[in-house]
Amino acid sequence: MRLASLPIGAALAALVSPAFADAIAGGAQKQATNWAAIGMFALFVLFTLGITYWAAKRTRSAAQFYTAGGGITGFQNGLAIAGDYMSAASFLGISGLVYSSGFDGLIYSVGWLVGWPIVTFLIAEPLRNLGKFTFADVASFRFQQAPIRIMAACGTLVTVAFYLIAQMVGAGSLIKLLFGLDYAYAVVIVGVLMIVYVTFGGMVATTWVQIIKACLLLAGATFMAVMVLAKFGFSPEALFAKATEVHPKHLAIMQPGSLINSPLSAISLGLALMFGTAGLPHILMRFFTVSDAKAARKSVFYATGFIGYFYILTFIIGFGAIVLVSTNPEFLNADLIAKGKSGIEAIKGGNNMAAIDLAGAVGGDIFLGFISAVAFATILAVVSGLTLAGASAISHDLYATVFKNGNANEQDEIRVSKIATIVLGVVAVILGIVFEKQNVAFMVGLAFSIAASCNFPVLLMSMMWRGMTTRGAVYGGFFGLISALVGVIFSPAVWEVTLGYAKGSAAFQISNPALFSMAIAFFSIWLFSKLDRSRRAGQDKAGFDPQYVRSQTGIGAAGAASH
Amino acid sequence: MAASALEIEKNPKFRALVAARKSLGWTLSIVMLAIYFGFILLVAFNKELGNLLGAPLGAGSVTTVGIVIGLGVIVSAFILTGIYVLRANAKYDELTRQIVEESK
Description:
A: mainly alpha; Sodium/glucose cotransporter; B: mainly alpha; 3 helices; Na/solute_symporter (chain A); acetate transmembrane transporter activity (chain A); transmembrane helix (chain A); sodium transport (chain A); Na/Glc_symporter_sf (chain A)
């Protein structure tokens, strides 16, 4: 059985029982070609290519390429962060989970939101004050450059790679389902477009693709939620009453179900979601696109608002789909109904189609096409941000700082990042095709675990703890990275579900390793810093005062480059 | 001549800024952690708590306590962020501006 593998279907499968994972997945059988959707998507592509052309003329310097010259406003950046973060996975996956299990979907959306306040309180402002292009600028600020940059680049590239594969496989399946295109074509289209956006338009184009997508997605989801609520006189109670009446689980959809079974797993997953958000390289990079710490702070506030609002919408959309999709034979597989399955189980294309079908139910074929196109655009915006973050780690951290010892010519650095973008794009397409029939369920969860266990501890401690040394950072980062990787490989989701070993044979019977891998990272940073008696350790600690003053006041921070 | 980092750190305004921001930032972080993990623990121990989250909000209502709490966590994340941003805009920026001015 192959999973449809939208990344959240995915992340969820890492979390829930295999049987449930099958239930939320559903196959991605090819649909009839949907011309309305393709037309609207073509329009989006043309428009964004126009923006890329405009952006390309403005993208001459490294600062413009990596961070749009720091010229994005707080509000724009808030939208772009939301556009970077609200993946098709969260749109289709969470509404699909609400559709099948009700309340359990809410648990997931809450987890994906609560990292943002932490980013605001502890990370955003010092990050903006200390950094220039990548989060490694901050993590390595007072340390020996090469070892930290290599560690941070590993953390970035591994996070980006897993996130990217999950997005590519999700994109291929989704497009096959929505547009009736072949899987391989779909993956190649996504790869080519993302290469074009990033290589020609850099951060300026990526930002605007994300902003436009965020607006389209928020507008589309708002329209659907309003249409659903309007049918119930804007009374959520009436909507819930009807949903519990038609859903086979009845009142059970209004309370926790099978999503969380062990408190330890739940807490570990919660940690990964919360602190993973604060360690995702493509998200952290967005804070360098604004002019100063104040704008960085504002941008997370707007982003938190947009993302929280969006998750509330997906909850309403999921319930709307229970009422309007699972009762409408047009969206259901007649064979399954004949076999006695409920309307919820018989939805064509699986639960991830709930939001798309609801668009058809409330707005007709044209709106269904619009929402399909938005889902595609959503994937493009997310993969572009990821690719740019990965390419920056290669060109800025590895090439310019480690390989060229900080003396790289700016134009060479930009050239390297463009080459890196193309290479990453090609690799992503190949991996997307290779993994087509694999269960990539665990990959988004893995990306969050690594971000929470490698990037986040090093970043936080480097900004907060005077006693941290180069050695502590490098050991802590690598131990966090390795323990997260090992923890995921030997978890039930990978060892038993993906690799097919016997049930119960996984060494770690916990769905997400973050509780342990984060503890290992923080402990190693502390231990190896304390044990570090090298001369370098003295310099590292002496560097804290200037770093601290700059992180708090912004004195000496990289300003907006041009405009 | 610009003040050195150590001189700036001795500036009482710098100390006030850092202390205020630190205490607000960590307090709000702990509140957010408590709200979120409190919610997760309520979910994890829902059975032991006699299906507290599944209890109807009022007599004859379908909406449950759990739905309201869950949506409440989402809203609280936004409100906490808002509190921080308002305080920072109102106080910290001005203090920072003065510190930067005095260190020139």
